[in-house]
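User: I want to check something. If I give you two sequences, will you return the structure for each one separately, not as a complex?

Assistant: Yes, each is folded on its own. Here is the first sequence with its structure:
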Amino acid sequence: MSDTEPVTPEPTPPVPPTTPKTSWPRKLLSIFWNGEERRVRALWRLITLVVVVSGAGLAVQATGLLPERGTREFYVVGTVLRLVLGLLAVWLMGRLVDRRRFRDFGFSMNRDWWADLAFGLGLGAVLMTGVFLVEWALGWVDVTGTFRTPAGDEAFGLAILMPAVVFLGVGILEELLARGYLLRNVAEGLAFRRLGGARGGLLIACVISSALFALGHADNPNATWVSTVNIAIAGVLLALGFMLTGQLALPIGLHISWNFFQASVFGFPVSGVARMRTAFIATEQTGPEIWTGGAFGPEAGLVGLAAMVVGVVLTLLWVRWRQGEVRLATALAEPPPPRAPRLAPRQA
C-alpha cells in the first residue's frame, strides 16, 4: 500500500443558469401586449376605447341624424345615440380586446343588482331633497312656481319625460365609461405589489377616475375650481358603490336620481347646465354662493358637499347591511381567467 493519500479533486462550482436574452422585437411588443394575460395592456385598452367612442360620435354627427342643436329633441336623441354607441363600444372592447363578458363591467343583473339599483335611486332622491330642504329652511331658495314647462300650454306629463330620458341615459353611460371601464382597467394596470396589490390599484384608480370625471365637467358653464373639486368628490362617492359591490347598479341609480331630482324636481342647475327647464318645483337660489353653489348648482356649494359626505356614510351602512362587512371588491383589479385551450376534434 502507498503511504500517500489520494488527492481529492476540488468540486467544480455550479454554473449559474443563464437567462435567455429577449430580442428587441419582443421587448417592443411587450410594451403593448401582456403575454401572461394574452391581451393588450390596460393603457392601450383605454386609448382604444377613447378612439372608438370618439370616432363613433363624429360619425353620427357627420350623418346628420341629430336634430337641430339647442332643441330639447337634440339632447334627447343625442343622449340615446351616445348611450347605444357607448354600450356597443364597451361590449365590443370586452369581447375583442379585454377578454371580458359585458356583465363583468358591473352588469350582473341579478336580484342583488336590482336591490342596489333601487337603493341608489332612493339615495340620490333623499340627498337632493335634503339639499333643497336645508336651503329652503335657511331662506336661500325661493319657490317661484310648480309644474313648470318651457311652454306654458305644454302638458307637464309629456314634457317631464324628456329630462327623464336624458338623465337615465347620462347616468348609465357615464357610470359605464368612468367607473365600469376606466376605473376597472386602471385598477388592473396598477395592481402592482409595490403599490399595494389589488387594493392599492383600486384606490389609486378611484382617485384617477374621479379626477378625470371632474375634468370632464371643468369646461361646463359657470364652472370654477371649487365646482371641479366638488365634482371629483362626487366621483369618489359614485366610485365607492362600485368598489364595494363590484357592480354598477348603486352608482347608476344614484347618478340618475341625483341629477333628476336636482334639475327636474327642484329646478336647480345640474353641473352648471340649466337647459332642463321642466321641473315639478320652479326655484331661484338667493343664498351665498359658497353654500348654494350659485349658477353651477348645488354640486359647487357646501350644502351639496355635505350631502355627498352623507351619501358616503349611507352607502357604507347599506353595504354593511347587505353584505355583512365593508371591504373592497378586489376582484375588480384582477385580470380575467385564462381561456381554456381548445380541444382538438376527435378523429373517427
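And separately, the second sequence with its own structure:
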Amino acid sequence: MTTSTAAPIRNTPRISREHRNWILAWALVAPTLILVFAVVAYPTGYAIWLSFHKFIIGQLDRPYVGMANYIKVMGEPFFWESFVRSVKYVGVAVPLKLFFGLVTALVLNERFRGRGWLRALVLVPWALPPLTSVMTWKFIFHDTTNVLSTLLIFLNIIEKPISFIGLPQYAMNSAILVNVWRGFPFFAITLLAGLSPIPEELYDAAKVDGANVIQRFFAVTLPGLWPVALVSTTLSTIWTLNEFPSIYLLTQGGPFKSTMTLALSGYFTAFVHGSRHLSHAVIYSLGLVPLMIVLIAILARAMARREEQSLA
C-alpha cells in the first residue's frame, strides 16, 4: 500500500487590487511622461544649463560663468525693449482674436443655409501654412503693390499711399493684424464647441423672464463659455508669445527693430549677429517663461475654483 504526500502549499504573495490599479495607472501614464520629458523637460533644462555657461557657436569650450550672462543681457536696454514689444504684441493680438472668434462662433451657432460651408471656410486662415498666408499679406502691404493703400484711398480713408511694413509706426500694427487673421479661427472653433453643450432650455427660461439678447448673453452664454474661453485664451497667449514665423517672414524684426520681439531677438543673437552667443540667445527665450508660468497659474486657479463651484 502506497501513501501519497500532498505537495506543500506555497504562500505566493498576491497583489492587492489597489496595487494593481496603481501599477496600471503608472503604466498608462508612463508614455506621456516620457514624451513630456523628451520634448519639454530635457530641452528646458538644457536651455537653463546653457544660460549659466559661455556657449558660442563654433567653440568647444563652454566654461561656467554663473549669472554673468543674465547680468549682461538684462542690463541692455534692447532686452527690455524686446520684452515690451512682446507684451504689446500679445496684449493687443489675443483680445482681438478672442473678440472676433467669439463673434464668429455666435454667428456660426445660428441655423442658416450654408452654415457647414462657412464653418469650413473660417478654418482656412488657421489651416494655411504660415509661409503662404504671411507672404500673401506681405504682398498686400508691400510698397510696390500697394494693394491695401489703393483700397484705403478708394474708400477715402487715406489720401496717399502708406508703407505699412516700411515705417516703424505701422509695422507692429501690421504684424498684429496678420496674427489676428491667422489666429481668430482657433477661437471661433473652440468657442463654437463650447456653445453646443449649453442647454436651449436656459435661453427659453431667460426669454420668459424678459431678458433681451444682451442679457441672455451675459447670463447664459458667457458663464457657459467661460471654461473654454479661459483655456483657449491661455493657449493662444502662449503661442503668441512664442510667435516667430509671422513676424520674421513679414518684417524680419524691422524696420529699425520696431517689431523685434523676444523670440526674434533670441534668433538674431544666436544665428545672425556676429557674436553667435547661444547662451545670450537662450536668455531671450527664457524671458518669456515667467509670463507663461503666471498664465498657467491663473488657468489652474480659475479651473480649480470652477470645479469647486460645480461641486458645491
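Because they were folded independently, the notes below concern the second chain alone. The mean pLDDT is 86. The CA atoms of residues 142 and 266 lie 26 Å apart.
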